[in-house]
Amino acid sequence: MLLAGDGVLGLEGSARDLLTTASGAAQTLAVARISALVGKARVLDELSVLPDADVSSLLGLPVSGGFRAAVDRAVPEHRDRHSPLYLLLDDLPVAALISGYATMYRRGSELLELDRASVGRWVPQADVCAGWRRDGIMMTAIASEGRPPTPIGPIAPALERSDDPLAWHEIGALPVGAMRRRRLVDIAADGSGLHVSAMFRDTHVDQAGDETVLHEYELHVEVESETMTVRSCVATARALPWPECPAAGASARRLEGHSVEDLRTLVRTAFRGTSICTHLNDLLRSLGDVAVLARALA
């Protein structure tokens, strides 16, 4: 959960690994929580974590490019296990990034003016993803009007299931003006391999109390058990802000033939430009945890 206000962000995150046996019995393997305060210029001012870990080296760093490398150095024991705590810290940059949309909704699309005041001179980076292509709706609106349009997505349907109270860990109500990213990686094993379902959803609550979807993707992935090689990877866009965004879904097929343990590096180094979505990239990177979760199944 993230709250944007006056150039300062309050970030709250929680995560859980849950094992469900063939009999239906469920066991929580690991939990984590973080609470962070990000000040102007996106500098990390405060951070508390559970389970306890020495994250003092992260304080004072911008929560942007290079922050994830600093997380690798700060908590290597959690990185190696791809623990829930590591994944929450790894998500801080994207949480800070999407907070700009909360500001846009609250201040009537005055995103450029806010960023100039709080961060310095903000120059949009064209062609960093499908939605930000220089000839797309968003970039042409910025060029002609000095600000992007405000995307309004569909009402967010419930993700919780009445017949499975453990399907999601407990998550509080999202307050007005706040945004949230939910992410899930679910693995099932049988004689044919590993079947992976993954998704993420970004939502915002407006002044009327309606929670709407800004970004949402689903992944369906088949993995060969012995070699941990991706057999197939299909992305489905559920809700995206700009007309050019859905074309990025095809980039998911580029993971096929690669080991899941190489996916974090592959996506970080090779998935760039207008054929990709930076948010879908984060979901694709999360498939790097499949090997760790598969070992828990075993």
Q: What is the compact description of this entry?
A:
By secondary structure, the protein is an alpha+beta fold.
Give a written overview of the molecule.
It is a single chain. The chain has 298 residues and is α+β, with helices and mostly antiparallel strands. It has two domains: 1-108, 2-Layer Sandwich (Enolase-like, domain 1); 151-298, no CATH class. It is 26% helix and 29% strand. The protein is built from nine helices and eight strands. It has an eight-stranded antiparallel beta sheet. A hairpin with a 2-residue loop joins strand 5 and strand 6 (193-205). Helix 7 (263-270) packs antiparallel against helix 8. It starts with a strand and ends with a helix.
Q: Key terms for this structure?
A:
alpha+beta; 2 domains; globular; 8-stranded antiparallel β-sheet; 298 residues; 9 helices
